[in-house]
Design brief:
Number of helices: 20
Distance between the termini: 63 Å
Number of strands: 23
Strand content: 15-25%
Helix content: 25-40%
Structural class: alpha/beta
Length: 600
């Protein structure tokens, strides 16, 4: 049976058909939908883990138990999971284990353009790279076969375009192979004596995998005209095929690591000119050069950003296919916080106070954008909490009284806790603000350990952030409602002046959550509006200035009321006045602020 499938959905289908029984992932665009789609199959146990390292280790444990397992993450998530990844190369696996990593060339939703092939090479692990949804399904199933045949975890490298585009995919039935666990200390206990014996096994496995890459159809030659031969992979293969058709010969690489030698040498002999077309780093190009071949690649094509049909056609002197010569000077549409976003009031307050704000990874990173322009640093998951400690240690009292860090609830569970432990242990007077919007917002509303629900929306263990922070040694823990600007300002100013570390939890659920009640939209009374533009300082997309008067787009406004607190003339009217749209168990700001103050 054939279906039109998103690339990520096709991977999930491949996992299901291959008999995967366990999945643990951390959401990260563009990988998130793989696990979300897999969770729709009741035969497969699925979970969101606190971070990628935990997900990979849990999947390894499931493999050890004898069940085929899987974990998924985006490229920067693989950095977090690198510790277990590199050692799993030595231990090998029991039942098959597949690791999906999705790269984000073009940085559509990422802080860097990382090429995950480097991890595969350094860890000496096989990596498969599909170019469409059908291959995504097939390569996923093949990855399990390779995993068990060669006793190794297998990386499946997706990218934004393959993950988020659709193509026709043929599905089949599910089969569930299993293995039994057998105690084997020399294989699975990686103390130095055992690890030394495992390294030669890894090298022999790499040799065998290289032979496999030479002869299996996962790498294939498509001979056309021989004046130009192109070596390519992944989505670049689709672009090359669309631009050139059979006017060139193509060596399509499906196994990104290890790369074949003889197959490439034989292909090069058949063509007059050899070009490598690959996004980001020149890994295949350098491999060809190491084989002594004369090859072009990054001298023609960029090392940065995503490729396209137009880009490849222009670089290689070919007219783009009909329909692809699009105007590129389109108006920009920068991302903004949603109307009613709970983070907006908090960032406005931080800017008003004049704080130095060290930020983190999440939709709240938009606090760096105008007009809020509050956030001054974003590095990686959890870095805000770690960095404020070092910043304050070197800035002493002056910075401690004027610097905060912000981190989301999901990101805090991911990797903020260890930084908080460092503050408690090594005693900087740092002010940490946890932006608790009761969900993992940036990647599309996935649950996390603080929400009390699992990946299927069923009741799950729930971590109490206030109790956790106190247990970690923080006497000063306050909760504030970011819709209440006065309360936000009061609590932040108070905690900055404290001569000890403190945690402020800014709690208000994401305005896009289905259970959050929306107030009636506000409107502007033009007779009261003075055109002072104070309301524009919060950057709400529902508010604009027309004819020197503020105007509210009622199709966007959710009646959060933040703008009413900024207008000195009472021009904003309407709404229900209702403020408590918080998640169950989250009280309004003033009561919690006072409670935190009393307990401090």
């Amino acid at each position: 049976m054939k279906q039109l499938m998103l690339g990520n959905k096709a991977v999930a289908r491949g996992l299901y058909e291959a008999g995967c029984c366990f999945a643990s992932s951390y959401p990260g665009t563009p990988s998130t939908e793989v696990t979300e789609e897999l969770a729709k199959y009741d035969e497969v146990y699925c979970e969101w883990a606190p971070n990628e390292k935990v997900a990979m280790e849990a999947a390894f444990g499931a493999s050890l138990a004898g069940k085929r397992s899987f974990c998924a993450m985006k490229h920067v998530g693989l950095n977090v999971a690198a510790d277990p990844l590199y050692t799993m190369s030595y231990t090998g696996i029991n039942a098959g284990m597949v690791i999906v990593v999705a790269d984000d060339a073009g940085m559509h939703s990422s802080q860097n353009e990382q090429d995950s092939r480097h991890h595969a090479i350094a860890a000496k692990l096989p990596m498969l790279e599909p170019s469409d949804s059908q291959e995504a399904l097939e390569f996923t199933k093949l990855a399990f076969e390779i995993s068990e045949r060669f006793d190794t975890p297998v990386l499946l490298k997706m990218c934004t375009r393959v993950a988020h585009s659709q193509s026709v995919t043929e599905v089949s039935e599910r089969t569930v192979p299993t293995k039994t666990y057998e105690k084997n200390i020399s294989t699975y206990v990686m103390m130095p004596g055992n690890a030394k014996k495992r390294h030669p096994i890894v090298e022999e496995r790499t040799r065998l995998l290289k032979e496999y890459a030479e002869h299996e159809s996962i790498n294939r030659v498509e001979m056309g005209k021989t004046s130009l031969g192109i070596i390519t992979s992944s989505t670049s293969y689709q672009y090359v095929s669309e631009v050139f058709g059979d006017s060139v010969s193509i060596l399509k690489i499906g196994m990104a690591n290890p790369l074949p030698d003889q197959l490439i040498l034989d292909f090069a002999k058949k063509v007059d000119r050899l070009v490598v077309v690959e996004e980001l780093d020149p890994i295949m190009e350098n491999h060809c050069k190491a084989l002594g071949l004369k090859v072009q690649g990054k001298d023609l094509l960029p090392i940065c950003g995503e490729f396209s049909q137009n880009l490849i056609a222009k670089a290689l002197g070919k007219e783009p296919p009909k329909g692809y010569a699009l105007e590129e000077n389109l108006p920009l549409r920068p991302p903004v916080m949603c109307p009613g976003c709970p983070h907006r009031g908090l960032f406005y307050t931080l800017r008003k106070i004049g704080c130095t704000v060290l930020g983190d990874i999440g939709c709240y990173t938009l606090g760096a954008a105008a007009p809020l322009a509050s956030m001054e640093m974003t590095l990686c998951m959890g870095a805000s909490v770690s960095a404020i400690h070092g910043f304050n240690k070197m800035g002493a009292e002056k910075s401690e009284k004027n610097t905060v860090c912000v981190i989301g609830d999901s990101t805090f569970m991911h990797s903020g806790m260890t930084g908080l432990a460092n503050i408690a242990y090594n005693q900087s007077h740092s002010t940490v603000i946890i932006l608790d919007n009761s969900i993992t917002g940036m990647t599309g509303h996935q649950q996390n350990p603080t929400t009390g629900l699992n990946i299927k929306g069923d009741p799950a263990g729930k971590i109490d952030l206030e109790a956790l922070c106190r247990a970690m040694g923080f006497a000063r823990v306050s909760v504030v409602d970011p819709y209440d600007l006065a309360a936000c300002e009061e609590v932040i100013r108070r905690e900055l002046q404290a001569d000890e570390a403190s945690v402020i939890i800014s709690r208000r659920p994401c305005a896009l959550l289905k259970y959050v009640k929306k107030n009636a939209p506000l409107r502007v009374n033009p007779d009261k509006c003075r055109g002072c533009t104070s309301c524009m300082k919060i950057g709400c997309p529902a508010i604009s200035i027309r004819g020197k008067k503020a105007v509210v787009d009622t199709t966007l406004c959710i009646g959060c009321g933040v703008c009413t607190q900024m207008c000195r003339f009472g021009a904003f009217e309407g709404g229900t006045g209702e403020k408590d749209t918080a998640a169950p168990g989250a009280a309004a700001s003033s009561g919690h602020a006072e409670e935190g103050k009393e307990k401090a």
